Amino acid sequence: MVSSSGTISASFVSKRSRSPETPHQKITLKGAEDLYKIGAHAHLKKLMSAYCMKRNLDYGSVRFVYNGREIKARQTPAQLKMEEEDEICSVMELGGGGPYTP
């Protein structure tokens, strides 16, 4: 059984690095009360870990979903082709008990 626990919206900010030939993109991820900035080519595990720590959640019990698919820790915003106003959903896994006995 799963229960939705929140969303994080994404917006890209393009910045130039020291070399004018290679632009450096950062992604800003906003939750209801939080703001995360991560490089477009950084693993999303950094964001997911920070989100769980901030909310005092067990990293192993939270799943992150983007465009209907679960995000893997080693994926990047660039690999997922994230664009401005995209959302990442966080979903809590709820442990279930055994058989129902009235």
Overview of the structural elements:
The chain has 102 residues and is mainly β. Helices cover 10% and strands 42% of the residues. It is built from 1 helix and 6 strands; from the N terminus they run E-E-E-H-E-E-E. The chain has one helix at 45-54; strands spanning 2-16, 23-30, 35-39, 62-66, 69-70, 86-93. The chain has a 6-stranded antiparallel β-sheet with strand order 3-2-1-6-4-5. A hairpin with a 4-residue loop joins strand 2 and strand 3 (35-39). The protein is elongated.
Question: Whole-number average pLDDT?
Answer: 75
Q: Main sheet?
A: 6 strands, antiparallel
What spatial order of strands do you see in the largest sheet? 3-2-1-6-4-5
- The residue fraction in helices comes out at under 10%
Shape: elongated
- Give the SSE string: EEEHEEE
- What class, by secondary structure content? mainly beta
What's the gyration radius in Å? Answer: 16 Å
User: How many DSSP H or I helices?
Assistant: 1
Percentage of β-strand residues: 35-45%
Q: What kind of oligomer do you see?
A: single chain
What's the gist of this structure?
With 102 residues, this protein is mostly beta strands. Helix content is 10%, strand content 42%. It contains 1 helix and 6 strands.
